[in-house]
Amino acid sequence: MPGEQTSENLKITSSVEEKDLFFARFYERFPNDADRLEVICRAASPNGIKCKCGSLVTNRKYGERTARCHSCRKKVSATADTFFHGVKKATAHCCAIFVIGEGLAISANDFSKRVKVATSSGSVILHEVSAAIVNVMNDEVEMLSAILCEPVGKRSKETPAREHPKAEQADAEKRAAERSKAASSASPQDLLQRMSESTQSKSAIPENEIEKQIYELLSAQPTQFDALCKHFKLPQSELLAALTMLELSGFVKALSGNRFEILRKDVSNSIQQPSFPISTNNKEAKIFFQFVYKTFHRVSRKYLQRYLARYWCFIDRKRWQFESLLELCGRSARKSYEQLTGYVTPLSVKVVL
Question: Mean of the pLDDT values across residues 28-40?
Answer without folding.
Answer: 95
